[in-house]
Amino acid sequence: MIQDSREDFFLQLLADYVLLNELLGGNNTEQFLHKIGIKYGLRLEDRYRSASDCSKNLTVEQFSNLISRFAQSIGGEYVLQAADEEKVVIYCYRCPFGHVVLKTPVLCAALTAMLGGIASRNFPYSKVSREHSIAKKAANCQIVIYLQETETALAAAGNVYADRVVNYVLTPSEIELMNNEVLAGNNIYHKYVASFESLKSKHQFLETEYNQLRNEIFSDLGLGVLTVNEAGKITYMNKEAQELLPVGENWDVGSTKIFQSLLHETLTKHTHFKQHQVQIPFPAEVRVYSVNTAPLFHEEGGLSGAVCVFQDETKIRALENELLQMEKFSLVAELAAGIAHEIRNPITTLRGFLQILSKEFRHETKGAEYCAMMIEEIDRANSILKEFLLLTKPTAPKVREVDLHVVLEEIFLLIESKSLLENVEISKCYAKKLPLVKVDPAHMKQVFLNLATNAIQAMPDGGRLTISTSEEKGKAVVRFSDTGFGMEESQLKKIFDPFFSTKEQGTGLGLTVSYRLIEAHNGKLYAESTPGRGSVFTLELPVFRNEE
What's the rounded Cα separation, in Å, for the pair 539 and 254? Predict the structure, then answer.
């Protein structure tokens, strides 16, 4: 030994272990020595990384530096002839093993495996070729370490190294081979097999524990998690996914066609979908899902499948629409507050003078006709201002226990004559017993009258208006269903927006005010419509419960 260092001691120990394996291993000695060399190379690399504080893949310069330092520590004469991105070339003029290498040439296998193993962990390709060898009585050794898979590297003789776990341990088949050839009659093989079976059992136990833990984590997240293999077949679904997408182990063409399409694109094109919004049709409703997908790869880099994480955002979207509606109301309220009071006073004055002026004209003259027309338009403008003020600051509701059937009968008397003129039949379908609600009856009367009037106006050629009541999920429900011309989807989305109207003379504030009044009573007002078949406006109010 040239110097009494840790590397020298370990090298001597390695040489003794190699000689022992040569005596025991027979023809398979070199195969075992490759594993020993790769494992020692891993320890050598770890010490180098600790000394140089390096956490990323080694560069060619760092790899060459590691080889040089190792060569200096074990003795011998090594020269680094070339080092670039494709290969590193080393010349050895004096072997550190001395004459021992002539008797035991497999020692070189351990040394080259060390270098090949280090290269495989840091570069895309690793192949070690010994062009010349002192062990084969050549004047020197030339070791070429190829770092890229070039044509020259493929043509060169040598061993290719890959960064795999089996490179560091003896596999069961290798243990059995050594037992059959070397350790016949020895119990070592059976001990190895028993140990391997024990590890296999522990692995299965840990895998079961992992699956249980995974399910618990995914359940707490409240997200649906689904995985498929490379053929698109479902391999895993957590509990949430099974509830959101009841497909079992096979795809259902009806409700999951969109999911299949997204996962197919993820598998074929490696596309990542992030927060992708999809609408899934179900028998009772259409749900809105937010979907994320990503491809899955196994250790060797090939595609193994895809994962899909999704959640139901139907309620979130409904809340967002409500917030948007409230924001629109807020903007209109600000506008109304700014102009209503400023306009109302001069309009009142103007109306008074017009009334006086109209008396100066005889009846049935143009002057009297113009004055009457202007007073009518001023009254119309004043009614719009009143609705403006309702949006700005609705009058405080005077709530009490109310039977909605009584309120409906009151508005029936008001709309009956108008319905006869428009050739509209009114049909009542009341629940036998509707629970009381705590509301302002005047406000409810205004809302009901507005909804009934709109329904009649939607049937200029006649039709049927059905007013029905029921109790559903603790709510008192009133529906106004007409057989008019209906509305398109684009119109339906704006129906409660301020100033939106489908009528020529409409102000676009009636439904907005109605929506606001129902909202003030903690209720809901929404519409459904089919073009050419009619519309249904549904009003829901919480049922009054007497706590005493």
Answer: 32
